[in-house]
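Chapter review. Work through the record for peptidoglycan glycosyltransferase before attempting the end-of-chapter questions.
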Amino acid sequence: MRSLFACVLVLWCVGFARDQLDSYVDATVLPVLVHATSPEVRDRNGVLLRAYTIEDGLWRMELSPDQVDPLFYKMLIAYEDKRFYQHGGIDPLATVRAFGQAVRHGRVVSGASTLTMQVARLLEDGSTGRWDGKLRQMRLALALERQLGKEQILAIYLRIAPYGGNIEGLRAASLAWLGKEPKRLTPAEAAFLVSLPQAPESRRPDRHPEAARIARDRVLMRMVQAGVIDTETALAGQSDPAPNGRHAVPQLAPHMSDRAISAGPGRYDLTLDANVQQSLETLVADHMASRDPRLSMAIVVADHQSGEILASVGSPDYTGTVGQGFVDMTQALRSPGSTLKPLVYGLAFDRGLAHPETLILDTPVQFGAYAPQNFDGVFRGELSVRRALQLSLNIPVIRLTEALGSAHLLAAMKQAGTKPQLQGGAPGLALSLGGLGVSLQDMVQLYAALARGGESVPLRWLSEREAEAARRILSPASAWQVGHILAGVTPPALAGPPGRVAYKTGTSYGHRDAWALGWDGQFVAGVWIGRPDGTPVPGAFGGSDAAPVLFQALERARLKSVPLPPPPPETLLVARAQLPLNLQRFGPRQKASGLRLTFPPDGARLEAAAGGVPIKLRGGVPPFTLLVDGAVGLSGLYRPDFITPPMGPGFTKLSVVDAQGNSGRVSIELQ
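Structure tokens for peptidoglycan glycosyltransferase:
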């Protein structure tokens, strides 16, 4: 009653002391009109990826007029302040009506607060029950109307109105209670959002769903009376299920969002696609759900033509503690295993050291104290460079690395925009087998250069950052040759026939990291699996663990399949016999007179002895390596005569390879 009496008193003052009132209002000091809003990260289409609370854990989100359904505005004005656009902050007619109703009923039946007065109360967090507080709100409302436009006042209301709990403002309320942006609302949803600020705690749908429904339905019927909607629409809205719980605010791309807001609060627009990001986060979570919780997985997908990252998943569970989900494994330095081999081959093609049809030796070799071995311990003799890359053999790529120079390989990686970290001092030959640290995002950037025909464009994830100039690391022909070879690798089961995706897998030393990287005609992707603490994962392989996920990631990223490009005109597509002589074989060739096994003779039948078979050599350059049926039997031999390890009865192939790759072989039968 006191508040209503105060309102009438003010109206009387307006009529009899207008000049004094003008001075009184003009002297009003406005409170702070700018309020902190939740930092936001959005995707390439403006879709919210992630938001963060502000001080005191509040959700208060920026909102522009075009982000609100027009129906909500109509309902809000009709329900709260139907003469909002006619009055100057105080509605005299509403005040007189409220006063008359209070006199007749002896209690307050309806209020006289305008939307502007509600904004004044919210700005000062003032009381509505005390007459002095009401007078202050009226004075501030008049001042707001004089200094701000109607749309500005309405925008403040929509930003700071209480919606229950730690939720302020229409947009945060729509996301929390409806799980959607307020741009498209049903009549029932709009009515619910109009009703909630009147009693935000007693109508919270997560605690008082029935009260929330009743309040919503009341607004719908009032809208029929106001002519905003018809009766049929109102009844249909009342039959809609009312909100009964709280939705989580979108929390996509948490690691990349954290990287974005590390620069400070505000709004950040990323190159990510929310749909692709959501799909890949689900893929990672589902794939890792039944596996060791200490394992992590990361995926990066990018458009290799523009350099824009479309999705980046740093772990299966951002909040997980056992698997250190808070660590963004797209940025962690890890050993890339065999995934650097395509770059080595591309550089060798560029420098005229090899061609896909060039023959290269996969035989024991030693460079000083370094004697590389294949992953399976088997040597395959002479084979084509194409096949050596497809089989991911170690010895052929080490031979090429030695000819190129490890420093040139490292320089090419840096030219591609990656930031490799050496584990020791100067780069050694093991560099091409993963003997350095590099991030998944950098490896995807390197593969994007292969996909772009040898041109590297640094990947970017902030929309405002302009694309950088491309830098060439390989010729178009060499890059295409590498891609053509990798496209011939048999895909994982159910991934379709070869030729659609060029891909390479890798497993680092000790099974610590499983990798798969590849591309099609538009997208490039990389998958990493391992433990963030770097401990071994027994049985982990890039081919069996990471490759299937790579193909699924590319499938989810693309709207349509884009084929790999045709060869550039300058590409040399000939059989080995048509190659120049220096490209028909790489490195030292096997010489028939260079190394011979003089004992045992080829085809000999010998008695199986417990002490092994004597071997005698002529020629060759030590150290020698003995292979028994393709597997290393002895190595580091410097004498031309020695004894093999014990062998059982049956047919056996014995091969001896010297330091220059020359070899001699015999077949014998032990009885």
